[in-house]
Design goal:
CATH topology of the largest domain: Regulator of G-protein Signalling 4, domain 2
Number of strands: 5
Helix content: 40-55%
Order of helices and strands: HHHHHHHHHHEEEHHEEHH
EC number: 2.7.11.-
Domain RGS: 46-158
Number of helices: 14
Strand content: 5-15%
Pfam families: Pkinase, RGS
Subcellular location: Membrane
Enzyme class: transferase
CATH superfamily of the largest domain: Regulator of G-protein Signalling 4, domain 2
């Protein structure tokens, strides 16, 4: 049975959603402007809102827009099947790395470009453009990042961060049915009143945590999910506590768990091709955790 939020044109949003999401005057963000860590990779690449606004800023200047389009093309290249790497790689070189092209990216040195051309002829790999990507990010993290920090786009980012830092409580959400149960509590569907967006709320009961000496484990889970940014690991959207529980608000996965699909959908088990696909997804998630120096049990 699908999970649905409130009906009507608001799609589950509170009547006061505009008031809840109202941006502060930029003068209220001055303390945040002074204290926020000016780290290019964190503010402009890892954080979705920061990434979106930095890209909007880059669209105002052709040379920066070319850099962003190059990075996007390389991201597409890196997820292609091996047999298509050569063709896509040559397309990227011709479009972005040849002087005289309308969207030429000058930040990639011609020595690097020559090495890429040679590898494309012999054995193209997914990491082929990594040195060029590094050069482009180094360029963007310099003067362009400084100019972005003084722009209206960064002002908007600060307003979003101010909103993000407002206290989260159980009243931020509507609670719906239980989706499952675990060792420390249950997982239920919930909906953010301000946006109408659905999530899964993992409630860790304090009594159970204390009884089983799981305090460090609960904190560890929160801290790991805070820093991991992966398509293959659920995202931590919010965290708050009530009198009785610690609550982690996570990406909701509506399709059912692996056990359900193995035993309750058609004949028990999976065909080999489907099993390989799921195994690959799990490995991608583990790889992203390993990049953050995290080993899963």
């Amino acid at each position: 049975m699908p999970i649905r939020g409130g009906g009507g044109k608001r799609k589950g949003k509170s009547k006061k959603w505009k008031e809840i999401l109202k941006f502060p005057h930029i003068s209220q963000c001055e303390d945040l402007r002074r204290t926020i860590e000016r780290d290019y990779y964190s503010l402009c690449d890892k954080q979705p809102i920061g990434r979106f606004l930095f890209r909007q800023f880059c669209e105002t200047r052709l040379e920066l827009e070319c850099c962003i389009k190059f990075l996007d093309s390389v991201a597409e290249y890196e997820v292609l099947p091996d047999e298509k790497l050569g063709e896509k790689g040559k397309e990227i070189v011709m479009k972005y790395l040849i002087p005289g092209s309308p969207v030429y990216v000058a930040e990639a040195s011609q020595d690097l470009v020559q090495q890429i051309k040679e590898k494309l002829e012999n054995s193209p790999c997914k990491e082929l453009f990594s040195p060029c990507v590094k050069s482009v990010h180094e360029y963007l993290s310099g003067e362009p990042f400084q100019e972005y920090s003084d722009s209206m786009y960064f002002d908007r980012f600060l307003q979003w961060k101010w909103l993000e830092r407002q206290p989260v409580t159980k009243n931020t959400f509507r609670q719906y049915r239980v989706l499952g149960k675990g060792g420390f509590g249950e997982v239920c569907a919930c909906q953010v009143r301000a946006t109408g967006k659905m999530y899964a709320c993992k409630r860790l009961e304090k009594k159970r945590i204390k009884k089983r000496k799981g305090e460090s484990m609960a904190l560890n889970e929160k801290q790991i999910l805070e820093k991991v940014n992966s398509q293959f690991v659920v995202n931590l959207a919010y965290a708050y506590e009530t009198k009785d529980a610690l609550c982690l608000v996570l990406t909701i996965m509506n399709g059912g768990d692996l056990k359900f699909h193995i035993y309750n959908m058609g004949n028990p088990g999976f065909e080999e091709e489907r099993a390989l696909f799921y195994a690959a997804e799990i490995l991608c998630g583990l790889e992203d955790l390993h990049r953050e120096n995290t080993v899963y049990r």
